[in-house]
Every structure is written in structure tokens, then in C-alpha cells.
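Q: Please design a sequence for this.
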């Protein structure tokens, strides 16, 4: 019974809670037991908070028994990437710099989750300060589909825990693919919202002008339920948007008929493993069969911003870490320290050029999406690689960064929303993934497209075998 409960989707368990068929305490206890049994092999959590989780579950149970049901997150066990502030609970960013840091306040997203009645299981593993390498003092998470494979970066613990059914949903952040890489590698759904859709107040920044925070879960509907709670204007984060509320439930039911989906075949195949692009084109054919119109795009300049992403990220990070660097340079892991060093070397001319490319990228997306609803492309250049393919701290070489972020950096530069979802598996059983990209503020269209595809295919129903 516990196995059946923990491996279901958030939406399925929420319906059981709403009908009082199961209790929040029952599912929280089951999830904590599953973490206890499985996470020693996965290392997806940095900190489990059983006392907090059970206290929140008991409170949710009392409220629901008295008819005060708050909605689909009420009593649902979720987890937080460990750069999201939690009052009185360690928030380390997987770095010795903040090993003993316990913030005095909750992040805005935690406030919203608490108000919705969610249950916090703990804090999830990540690369140091959400870049692309781990501090030597921290053990990287393992991919639940193949324990010797990459779980993505930087929200790697989020991807691993969600795929392994160690939470029903979680939070990730995305500066250059950090929701999309782990979602793709671990076969889950992740939404990188529009820039400013979700407040980043109380979330430690990697690069303030590129950072996004969003949900990861095992279905499109689950991510939509999370996003509906998380989004909204917050004056404490001046970048947050004032979009009108969207009807994500209607988007989930709308289907593909009438959708216009753009595909750039050259962009989707260049420097990309054929298994990823082939899975994308197969998925596009599925959407066409469901009534979507497929529009050929040609935008060879789309990937150009990948060459400038590192400069922007490094300069922004050096500003965000000025309280610690260079004074505590020796306490950083070598990967993040190298980023900060790079940030001090980026010239004003190089940063200005990157800013110009960002403007061009926004304009290009506006042009591409003027006559279509969404763009489809791979979520990553390849399936999850073996951990042995990476050097120390599982970091790609600087020369490989532009290729790695070619399907991620454009959306961070432009601020467009993107949803990543599974669209197949390799012969070796590793997940494949694609993304739908939409107009800024139009998460409803990417949710609509993803839900239509998900409902027509079986990929989201598979679970890794962790016996």
C-alpha cells in the first residue's frame, strides 16, 4: 500500500486526500520511510526534516477533517532545493561557505507553499551554489534510472528525488538549464517559468538577471498545480511580473487541436545526439496526429547566446558573492571558485556584447512566436551521461559549456517560459526529453501542449526500478 501511495502523482494523491481516503500523516509517514530506505543510494537529500513534516501533516489532517481543505497541495509532501531559505533550518547551497547558515525567514515560495498547506520533507542536493560542479565535501546525487549516471545540474537532487518518488513535487532553479537538465536526465516534468513569474525573494542567487525558480514533478498537471500556487507579484523581488491569473486547469484539458507548434530542425539536430532529435521529431508527429499544426522555423542565430552565457553568469555571480569572495576564496570548491575568477576577468566590452545578444535573443523569440503558440526542441543535447564522462566534481570543461547550454541559455537570456517532459527512453533505459517554449507570461500554452502530448503517450507513467 505504501508503495502504491508514494509512486502516484501529486494530483492522484491530492484527490485521495480531498475525499479523505488517505490522510496527510499516512502519506508523509510512507514517504519518510521510502526516503530512509532508498536515499542512501541516491543522495538526493542533504537534509530530511521528519519532525517538521509530521507536524505539518498533522496540522493539515486536522484542518481537512474539519472541512478546511485548502486545495491540491494541502497535506502533500514536497521538498525544496537547498538554496531556498527556510526559517531556522539549514540552507547551505551545498557549500561549506554556508554550511552553518540558518536563515531567520522563509523564502517567498516557502510562504506560498505553507499557505497552501504543503508538507516539507527536507532540503535537496545540488551543485555548489547552483552552478555545474559539486563542492568536494558534498557527494553528487545518482540518477535513479542508472545509479552510475548523471542526474543533471544544478537541481540534481530535485530531479533524482522526484523520479525516485521520494517527494511528490519539489522546487528547482534554472539559470542556464538547471530545471531542464535534471528533469530531462531523470525523466520528470519541470517548468522554467517566465522570468519574474515566481518570486526569488529568499532564494540564494547564482546570476540575478538569469535566475528562475519553478516546479518539478511527475506529471504536467502536478507542475501546473505547483505553479498556480507559486506564481504572482512580490514587491520584495522587483523583477516579478503582474500577469493576470491563468486557468491552468482549462489548459490541461484543451488538447492539441488548433495549436501551432514551431520546429527548427537544424537547431534541434546540430551538436545533438540523434536519439534526442529523433525523439523530438517523433513527438511532433504525435502532436500533428492530435490536430496541431507544425510550422517549420529557421533561426540559426538562436544558439548564439550560448557563447555568451558564461560571461553573464560569472559577472552576476561575482556580484552576488562579493561578501564572500575573494575573502573566503579557499572555502569554495574549485568549480565555483573558477567561475568567480572568470567573472573578475570579463571585460565591460564583453558584458555589453552579451547584453546586446540578450536583446537580440528576446527579439528573435518575439518574432518566432508571433505566428505560433509554442516552439518544440530537445531539452538537452544528449541523454544522461555516465558519471565517468565528467571530471572531478562532475563538471564539464569550460570549452563544452556553450554546447551543453545550447537548448537552455536562449530561454534564460530571453526570459521565455519552458516546460520539459519525457518523450521516450534509450535502448539502455535512460529517459529522453523535449521542451515546449512559449511567450513571456504565457505558461498556459506550454502547459496545454505538454499535457496533450503526455496524455497521448506512456512515458510519464514509467518509474525507475530501485529494488
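A: Design:
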Amino acid at each position: 500500500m505504501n508503495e502504491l501511495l508514494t509512486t502516484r502523482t501529486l494530483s492522484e494523491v491530492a484527490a485521495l486526500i480531498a475525499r479523505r481516503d488517505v490522510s496527510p500523516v499516512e502519506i508523509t509517514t510512507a514517504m519518510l520511510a521510502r526516503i530512509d530506505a532508498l536515499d542512501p543510494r541516491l543522495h538526493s537529500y542533504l537534509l530530511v526534516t521528519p519532525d517538521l513534516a509530521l507536524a505539518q501533516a498533522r496540522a493539515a489532517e486536522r484542518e481537512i477533517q474539519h472541512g478546511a481543505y485548502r486545495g491540491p497541495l494541502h497535506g502533500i509532501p514536497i521538498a525544496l532545493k537547498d538554496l531556498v531559505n527556510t526559517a531556522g533550518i539549514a540552507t547551505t547551497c551545498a557549500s561549506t561557505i554556508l554550511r552553518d547558515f540558518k536563515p531567520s525567514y522563509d523564502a517567498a515560495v516557502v510562504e506560498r507553499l505553507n499557505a497552501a498547506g504543503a508538507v516539507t520533507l527536507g532540503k535537496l542536493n545540488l551543485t555548489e551554489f547552483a552552478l555545474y560542479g559539486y563542492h568536494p565535501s558534498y557527494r553528487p546525487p545518482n540518477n535513479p534510472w542508472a545509479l552510475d549516471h548523471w542526474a543533471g545540474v544544478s537541481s540534481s537532487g530535485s530531479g533524482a528525488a522526484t523520479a525516485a518518488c521520494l517527494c511528490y513535487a519539489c522546487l528547482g532553479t534554472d539559470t542556464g538549464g538547471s530545471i531542464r537538465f535534471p528533469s530531462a536526465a531523470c525523466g520528470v516534468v519541470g517548468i522554467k517559468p517566465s522570468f519574474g513569474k515566481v518570486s526569488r525573494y529568499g532564494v540564494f542567487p547564482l546570476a540575478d538577471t538569469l535566475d528562475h525558480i519553478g516546479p518539478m514533478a511527475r506529471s504536467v498537471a502536478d507542475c501546473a498545480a505547483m505553479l498556480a500556487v507559486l506564481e504572482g507579484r512580490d514587491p520584495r523581488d522587483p523583477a516579478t511580473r503582474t500577469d493576470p491569473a491563468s486557468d491552468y486547469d482549462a489548459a490541461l484539458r484543451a488538447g492539441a487541436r488548433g495549436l501551432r507548434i514551431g520546429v527548427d530542425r537544424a537547431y534541434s539536430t546540430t551538436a545533438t545526439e540523434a536519439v534526442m532529435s529523433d525523439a523530438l521529431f517523433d513527438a511532433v508527429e504525435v502532436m500533428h496526429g492530435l490536430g496541431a499544426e507544425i510550422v517549420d522555423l529557421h533561426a540559426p542565430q538562436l544558439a548564439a547566446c550560448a557563447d555568451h552565457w558564461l560571461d553573464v553568469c560569472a559577472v552576476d555571480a561575482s556580484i552576488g558573492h562579493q561578501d564572500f569572495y575573494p575573502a573566503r576564496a579557499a572555502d569554495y570548491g574549485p568549480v565555483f571558485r573558477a567561475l568567480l575568477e572568470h567573472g573578475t576577468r570579463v571585460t565591460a566590452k564583453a558584458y555589453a556584447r552579451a547584453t546586446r545578444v540578450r536583446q537580440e535573443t528576446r527579439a528573435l523569440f518575439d518574432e518566432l512566436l508571433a505566428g505560433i503558440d509554442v516552439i518544440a526542441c530537445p531539452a538537452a543535447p544528449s541523454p544522461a551521461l555516465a558519471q565517468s564522462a565528467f571530471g572531478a566534481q562532475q563538471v564539464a570543461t569550460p570549452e563544452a559549456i556553450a554546447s551543453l547550454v545550447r537548448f537552455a541559455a536562449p530561454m534564460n537570456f530571453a526570459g521565455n517560459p519552458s516546460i520539459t517532459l519525457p518523450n521516450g527512453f534509450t535502448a539502455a533505459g535512460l529517459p529522453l526529453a523535449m521542451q515546449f517554449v512559449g511567450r513571456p507570461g504565457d505558461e498556459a500554452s506550454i502547459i496545454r501542449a505538454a499535457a496533450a502530448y503526455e496524455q497521448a503517450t506512456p512515458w510519464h507513467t514509467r518509474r525507475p526500478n530501485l529494488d
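Q: Thanks. Anything notable?
A: The domain at 2-461 is CATH 3.90.1300.10 (Amidase signature (AS) enzymes). The CA atoms of residues 417 and 443 lie 6 Å apart.
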